[in-house]
Specification:
Number of domains: 1
Number of strands: 2
Number of helices: 3
Radius of gyration: 13 Å
Largest sheet: 2 strands, parallel
Shape: elongated
Strand order of the largest sheet: 1-2
Helix content: 25-40%
């Protein structure tokens, strides 16, 4: 996961195949986990879909 200011670095890592797994860029949030805040909407969409590319 990269902050918006490091987008070029993220793209370069993908270009050079230096990343492991998916590469994400936080575009409108200062940190992870701040996406959908509406609890009802989160339940309707489903955590599995919201965190589709996350490994925990």
């Amino acid at each position: 996961m990269y902050p918006l200011a490091r987008t070029a670095e993220a793209a370069r890592a993908v270009q050079l195949n230096q990343h492991v797994g998916k590469v994400g860029v936080l575009a409108l949030a200062p940190e992870e986990g701040l996406g959908v805040e509406d609890r009802e909407l989160r339940e309707r969409v489903g955590e599995d879909r919201l965190r589709l590319f996350r490994q925990e």
